[in-house]
Amino acid sequence: MTELLAPLAFGPSGWGDELIAGAWLTLRLALATLPIGLAIGLGVALMRHGDSRILRPLGELYGAVFRGLPELLTIFIVYFGAPRLATHLLAFAEAALGLPPSGTQVQIDGFMAGVLALALVLGAFSSEVFLGAIRSVPESQREAADALGMSRAQAFRLVILPQVMRLAFPGLANNWMTLLKDTSLVSVIALPELMRQANLAALATRQPFLFYLAACLLYLAMSVASERLRLRIEPAASPRGAEPAR
């Protein structure tokens, strides 16, 4: 048994350090993506809920595109396309301002590309959760805020948003679990997260089952920890009288 698990040892003789470092990078990637994706999702939901003839179709288009595209394709588009787009925008801005062209080539590293791509996808799916929560808030809540003399911004921040967050919490928790698994797709752009490290270890040692099983256990450990955290938070986040889902 010791000989079988030797490739998982820590130090120069094994890949344990690399797997743990990959799992930590996976967690950092998901945590960095979460607030950006949720902010995008809330913004898109408000666009779709509003009456604007411009913003509402744009919100619908955004949701349709990034819910319809495979996550892997979104990662490739961001990783290879975002630097080129930023470079062209910089050149256009320099020309518009009458500045001499700097010839700067914008670069984006794998971590930032992964965060941006996953945030775009998370934002699209979270917008559905937020939109359902916004539409579930009774109209009487808005009327009560108006009666108290609140502005629309105050009413949203103090009355509507807290209820939206409570109603949306279960769906957002599910999106977090999906995001945690989707980080494995970022391995295709050579970011050394958990799945990438497991692939490298499997190729180097020719023991794919051992390392993919180790990666499986690490993903499960992060999922179980996330689920336990959800169960601790959900009673406070859920509407009064609601029982946490199990």
UniProtKB/TrEMBL annotation:
Residues in domain ABC transmembrane type-1?
Answer: 23-230
Q: What is its main location?
A: membrane
- Pfam (any one): BPD_transp_1
PANTHER family in the record: ARGININE ABC TRANSPORTER PERMEASE PROTEIN ARTQ, CATIONIC AMINO ACID TRANSPORTER, MEMBRANE COMPONENT
**TM stretches of this protein:** 26-47, 68-91, 111-134, 209-225
Localization of this protein? Cell inner membrane; Cell membrane
* This protein's record includes keyword Cell inner membrane: yes
Report membrane topology.
Multi-pass membrane protein
Family under the similarity heading:
Belongs to the binding-protein-dependent transport system permease family. HisMQ subfamily.
Alphabetically sorted, this entry's keywords are:
Cell inner membrane, Cell membrane, Membrane, Transmembrane, Transmembrane helix, Transport
What protein name does the entry list?
Answer: ABC transporter permease subunit
Give the CDD domains listed for this entry. Answer: TM_PBP2
Q: Does the keyword Transmembrane apply?
A: yes
